[in-house]
Amino acid sequence: MLDVLALQQQIQRMVQEQSATQAERQEQLDRAVTELQRQGTVWPEFAKRVAESRTSWLVAGVCQQVNARIPPPPCPHPHTVLATDGSQIFPDRHEGTACYLINIGRVVLPYGQPLRPLLDSQPTLFYRERDLYHVWNGRRTPVTEEVISLRRQWMEFEALAQLASELSRSSLPGVALSDGTLILWTLEGVPPDFRQEMLERFLISWERLRQCGWPLAGYISQPASADVINALRVGICPEVRVDCDKCPWKGGPGAREPGNRPNARGGRSVPPQQLDFYRYDAQMLPCAVIEGVTDAQLFAQVLAPGERSALFASVSQVLGHYGPHGVYFFYVHVGSEIGRVEVPAWVATCPESLERVHAVVVDQAEKGGGYPLALIEAHEKAVVRSPEREAFYRLVQDMLVQQGLPVSLSSKSWSKRIPRI
């Protein structure tokens, strides 16, 4: 039980500290906006500088004028929107269930067409040996929650591809929407055979969508990414060539003195107050003046409702295994928030597909009150709520008992079911 009274003072202190730093955060945000506009005037040189940099953080690949504001194109009419989302019930040793469940919500919303919408869910139970154990790198290991989550994501894309295949002849193409990122961050640093197996499953579904003519887009609500901000930090760096591993501004042997810092444009020694238009803080790296700002905060200051940002390329290491399906992204003002939209390369390089994604995302967010309607409906169909979870466990246990099979509940599980006071 949570002691709210004991927590109240801590929450009050947190709010006071955040309020005290609000002015400093606004100053950082203003600097980020100024830097975005400045680099927009020299964006080809900026793109080259970013591409040649070696940083300690993930930077966005610059593909277009970085301060571009692209108005929403008219939404195609008629069109169709596909969406899927998923949820899962993980194996629970306390419930004695050697199985897990994945539930995929599917949505088809046709506009201006004599077709009925589809809103359903498809539950799948996994209980066989091959479902509960995998052999990777020569070792037999039980599936983890991360592996189950990856399987759920793959099934979401597989369902999208199946819907697109079924509708390709009876419906005008629109957009296939996925909830969340297209970048499989969890595959970084995993055994190569596991990574290859999972990627093949994902990319087969993406290729089916491409062949059916359905642009794929992943929508991320309230994104916390800072890829674009990190690219701007490269622009701020006063070094001629950016290499974080050899940064002379960091403390320690070889660090530059305040009066002997090179300028990024000529390599000449200049006083710290003349480094572009930024103040120099002896306790701060020059590039850190905008550190902590997110891309969403930046573009909230730049974009008007309906507008999207320039297109950027993700340079995550795992994308090196995506082949022709590399991921690009842009930010879009959907009215109530700045969303991040990720698309495969075959969408990013097709102006018609990219415009369609932009128009449909804005239209769907308007219909959904700030979040794409199709994804709202897909989530509602996919989500497994607490009473349904309990019903699932009881149903499994009842079926086991009926067949005379042993059911082993942990003491912890029993203690939750028996009232003590």
Helix/strand layout:
Blueprint: H1 4-20, H2 22-40, H3 43-52, E1 61-62, E2 79-89, E3 100-111, E4 118-126, H4 129-132, E5 133-136, E6 139-142, H5 145-167, E7 175-179, H6 192-212, E8 216-220, H7 227-236, E9 261-262, E10 269-270, H8 295-300, E11 312-313, E12 327-333, E13 338-344, H9 345-348, H10 351-367, H11 373-382, H12 386-402, H13 411-417
Parallel strand pairs: 2-7, 7-8
Antiparallel strand pairs: 1-11, 2-3, 3-4, 5-6, 8-13, 9-10, 11-12, 12-13
Helix pairs in contact: 2-7, 5-6
How is the biggest beta sheet arranged? Answer: 9 strands, mixed
User: Percent of residues in beta strands?
Assistant: 15-25%
Mean pLDDT level = 85
Which stretches are poorly predicted, pLDDT < 50 over at least 5 residues? 258-282, 410-415
Descriptors for this entry?
421 residues, alpha+beta, nine-stranded mixed β-sheet, 13 helices, 17% strand, globular
Tell me about this structure.
- The chain is α+β, with helices and mostly antiparallel strands and about 425 residues long.
- The chain has a domain at about 85-215 and about 350-380.
- The protein is about 40% helix and about 15% strand.
- The chain has helices at about 5-20, 20-40, 45-50, 130, 145-165, 190-210, 225-235, 295-300, 345-350, 350-365, 375-380, 385-400, 410-415, and strands at about 60, 80-90, 100-110, 120-125, 135, 140, 175-180, 215-220, 260, 270, 310-315, 325-335, 340-345.
- The strands form 3 sheets. A 9-stranded mixed β-sheet has the order 1-11-12-13-8-7-2-3-4.
- Strand 9 (about 260) and strand 10 form a beta hairpin.
- Helix 2 packs across helix 7 (about 225-235) and helix 5 runs parallel beside helix 6.
- It starts with a helix and ends with a helix.
- The relative contact order is 0.16.
